[in-house]
Design brief:
Elements: H1 2-6, H2 36-39, H3 49-56, H4 58-68, E1 76-80, H5 84-95, E2 100-105, H6 108-118, E3 121-124, H7 131-138, E4 146-149, H8 159-167
Parallel strand pairs: 1-2, 1-4, 2-3
Helix pairs in contact: 4-5, 5-6
Length: about 170
């Protein structure tokens, strides 16, 4: 499917849909791992599957997003998305010195996890008039020092864009 769109085929990407190979992501119950004997390593017996799960994707991706922000002590970091990657981005932002983390999402359970496990303030974008205005208000008019997009490539929105995505 990539040839007509991109002009060349790219490699498969775990966790993406059929245009990129259709390989399940690391959070799937079962995944196909080509060359698994070459590019994987065994998990020590002392680590549970649940503990190891986040190290496969969410933790390194969230940490990478936070690291790219070059966070200084006391910075305010805004994280869009509170799935596994967003939660890890929020948590690692704190570990890197952020004084405040604000997580933006629409799923109440995910926002609760961000508050409880990452100590984040949260914004439900479905009930906020304007996320940028809310961020400015929460930061005394300054806005965040850094922003992390942890929504994902194939996130589903609401309204007309959601209908368009469904039709595709």
């Amino acid at each position: 499917m990539q040839q007509p769109i991109l002009g060349f085929p790219s490699g498969g990407i775990y966790g993406y849909t059929h245009p990129f190979g259709g390989y399940q992501g690391s959070h799937a119950e079962y995944i196909r791992v080509p060359f698994g004997g070459v590019n994987c390593f065994p998990i020590p017996e002392s680590i549970t599957d649940e503990q190891a799960l986040f190290c496969s994707d969410a933790l390194p991706t969230g940490l990478m997003g936070a690291d790219f922000c070059d966070i200084s002590p006391g910075d305010t970091v805004a994280v869009w998305g509170s799935g596994g990657v967003g939660l890890m981005a929020a948590h690692t932002s704190r570990l890197l010195g952020a004084g405040r983390v604000i997580v933006i999402d629409r799923v109440p359970e995910r926002l609760e996890l961000a508050r409880r496990h990452a100590g984040a303030d949260t914004i439900d974008y479905t009930s906020a008039d304007s996320v940028p205005a809310t961020l400015r208000e929460m930061t005394g008019g300054r806005g965040p020092d850094a922003c992390i997009d942890a929504v994902g490539m194939e996130a589903h929105g609401t309204g007309v864009q959601h209908l368009y995505d469904r039709a595709k």
